[in-house]
Amino acid sequence: MPKTTSTQSTSAREALSFGGVIRTRRRKLGLTQDEVASRIQTSKPYVAHLESGNRHPSDKIVARLAQVLGLDGRDLFLLANPNTEALLFSDEGQPAEGSVWEQFQNDQDLQSLYGVTPDEMEVLRRVSLLGQFRSPRDLIYVLNAIRHAIGK
Q1: Full-prediction pTM beyond 0.85?
Q2: Are 13 and 41 within 8 A, CB to CB?
Q3: 32-84 pLDDT, tens per residue?
Q4: Which residues make Cβ contacts (< 8 Å) with residue 72, sequence separation at least 6?
Q5: Is 103 in contact with 136 (CB distance < 8 Å)?
Q6: Fewer Cβ neighbours under 10 Å: the N or C end of the chain?
Q7: What is the domain extent for residue 58?
Q8: What letter would DSSP give residue 97?
Q9: How far, in Å, CA of 63 to CA of 76, rounded?
Q10: Of 15, 47, 72, which marks where a domain is finished?
Q11: For position 43, which CATH number holds?
């Protein structure tokens, strides 16, 4: 079995990174960094920084890139935010009793006002495990950010 060189493994890691995916897809579509920058309303250096992994994109930029490059917005968001994926799809942990999550879960009026679906409730339950929330409204802010990122 052939050994993988460090250059090969580095290239493989880069191809699976947010920047690598953006660069590969841009090239496949025959677009320059200037063209992508213009379409997502930013600068060429910023696109170069994203591709090299030197900058982290905002949710708005992720959504624009997904649209321009024809990529799935959810997948691109999770690729740009790998810790989010681990949090959202982990089976570990439960929110603490009396937590902001419990307050949110029991506030049917708030859930109804924002049209929170059962799938979104599960995502918010997992996000609440971060324990960094002061009120149920903080979870609505997170929900709106996620909805915006995936184009809902």
Answers
A1: no
A2: no
A3: 999 999 999 999 999 999 999 999 999 899 999 999 999 988 889 888 887 77
A4: 66
A5: yes
A6: N
A7: 6-72
A8: T
A9: 8
A10: 72
A11: 1.10.260.40
